[in-house]
Predict the 3D structure of the following.
Amino acid sequence: MSNIVGLVERIDAFPTVDELSGFVDKLVHAVPDRVTVTEIGRSRGGDPIRDVRVGSGVRQVLVVGNPHPNEPIGMATIRHLLGRLTRDDAQTLGATWHFVLCLDPDGTRLNEGWFAGERTRTGVARGFYRPPAAEQPEWCFPTSWRGTHVGAPMPETLALMRLIDRTRPALIVSLHNADFGGGFFYTTGGDREYWTGLTDQLAAAGVPTYNGEPDVPGARTWAPGVFELPLFQRIAETLAAEGVEPLAMMYGGGIRDYAAAYGTALLVCELPLWVDPRVTDHAPSGRPLAGVLGCTARSYEEIADIVCGSLGRIADRLNGSSPFERALTDMVRALRGNATAKRSVTETRQASRGEIFIEEYVWVGVARLRAGGMLLRLLDETGRDGSAAVAAERARFGAIFERWCADIETNAPGRPIPVHRLVTIQSMAIVTAVTRLGHGLPI
């Protein structure tokens, strides 16, 4: 496997949408007999969604880059793998590979300000954007819940649906970031050897394995750092059991739901930009887990209240046209739902110190940075005409955000992982899955 992945050269930046597209154009010009590029659709903003095909094997493999636009590791991974797989046909492992370069180019462009240069948790937050759930192409596939139709596919989703229908892939790999803390994976199956093979890549790169609870409701733990990717139905059933209305939290099915008709296996790679060894601290804390999760719930509600207050004070200047406004409104909804779910946990066991750190600085810390960064961008966008009311709100909330940033920079700044190591982990995980697919082993 390592001879296929090869040595990933050191890079200091993630490719932008245009840079990755330009790389592919040059590749087509250099080796036109080994690469085929097909436009499978257009984004809402008019960007082409392109499928880059390499190889001619019977097994179809689909790799999706940037399903969430704040998660650019996958674009760097796709660029590397394309360079390797087009060297000769032996590199393709007997498969036909399809690379969707960037599933959400519109959202990705709103994050490109932090793709280059020094990356700190608070610095990235200031240039952060993540769309609301209804505008996430990977989570608005059509499905149903207790007789109710769910999911209004976006143009980007429709493009992916057409590609899945045409290729009937044996494997889909979705490339994600996990922001901070540790690395983990979601799969639809496999065995102990497969799961260990995935997490071994984390250890080899010096990335701790995330040992907390999965962030997808209803997901089962296959092995430390490897979780099952559940179907929409189980996610919805789990939320309902926790007292959360599923259709208030989700706006459609995921890739697994749509590809299930073809028996497609899924692999999701969740890698952090920064790590902290405290996520693996198993020492008992002396605090009950339910109490720790209750604190998280209160923090979530505090963030939601702060954001709601700011939006309310500038409501006369908002009309729903800003992507930041829509994202923040949706984030408030998600935070309140997640708070309800956290409170539903009744386990009496002690939380480990690692679990407390994850709750405080992975979940709550990430929520503060994401909400705060997008709210500042909205206030800056809205106040360009010199509005005194917006300027006052910018100063008021800016002080809160600076306190949040100081807490992170003091207590959980994380250690940044070099980009080439992240690309190596994702590339090795993909090649591991495709190799096992070729050998008829479970994935």
About this structure: The two ends are 16 Å apart (CA to CA). DSSP finds 14 helices and 14 strands in the chain. The mean pLDDT is 95. The first strand starts at residue 35 and ends at 42.
